Amino acid sequence: MVSITNAAPRASARTRGNSRGEGTRAKLLDAALQAFASHGFHGTATRDIAAAAHMSPAAVYVHYRTKEDLLFELSLRGHLAAQEVVEAAATSASSPDVQLRAIARDHTTWHARYNTLARVVQYEMAALAPEHAKQVASIRRAIETRVRDIISTGTSSGLFRVPNPSMAALAVLSLGIDVARWYREGRGWSAQDIGDQYAELALRLVGYQN
Amino acid sequence: MVSITNAAPRASARTRGNSRGEGTRAKLLDAALQAFASHGFHGTATRDIAAAAHMSPAAVYVHYRTKEDLLFELSLRGHLAAQEVVEAAATSASSPDVQLRAIARDHTTWHARYNTLARVVQYEMAALAPEHAKQVASIRRAIETRVRDIISTGTSSGLFRVPNPSMAALAVLSLGIDVARWYREGRGWSAQDIGDQYAELALRLVGYQN
DNA sequence: GTCTATAGTTCGATAGAC
DNA sequence: GTCTATCGAACTATAGAC
Question: What is the CATH class of B4-65?
Answer without folding.
Answer: mainly alpha
